[in-house]
Amino acid sequence: MVASVGSQELNNLSDNSEELRLYLNSPLATRDTNSLKIWETLKEVYPYLYQIARDYLSRVAISIPAERLFSKANSTATE
């Protein structure tokens, strides 16, 4: 895989690895902090990780299969 990427992409991979290493060695935030606000302050330090965090933290967590199951169960239940 490494042989198939260009030199620019290889530099990006090493930059991203360094960014991840720095982030993993940074102190943890407390549970009561707003993750999106924290990432807004960190976006200059960790631009690659900021994009990933923004994509995943902005999505609403739902369970579609469970909702479908309850809906189907309601349709088949009788009094």
Entry keywords:
79 residues; HATC_C_dom; protein dimerization activity; RNaseH-like_sf
Structural write-up:
It is a single chain. The chain has 79 residues and is mainly α. It is 63% helix and 0% strand. The chain is built from 4 helices and no strands. α2 packs antiparallel against α3. The mean pLDDT is 76.
Number of helices: 4
Estimate percent helicity: 55-70%
Number of domains: 1
Number of DSSP strands? 0
The outline comes out as: elongated
Which structural class do the helices and strands define?
mainly alpha
Question: Strand share of the residues?
Answer: under 5%
The major sheet is characterized as:
none
Rg for CA atoms: 21 Å
Order of helices and strands: HHHH
Low-confidence stretches: none
Q: Give the CA-CA distance, first to last residue.
A: 60 Å
Mean pLDDT metric: 76
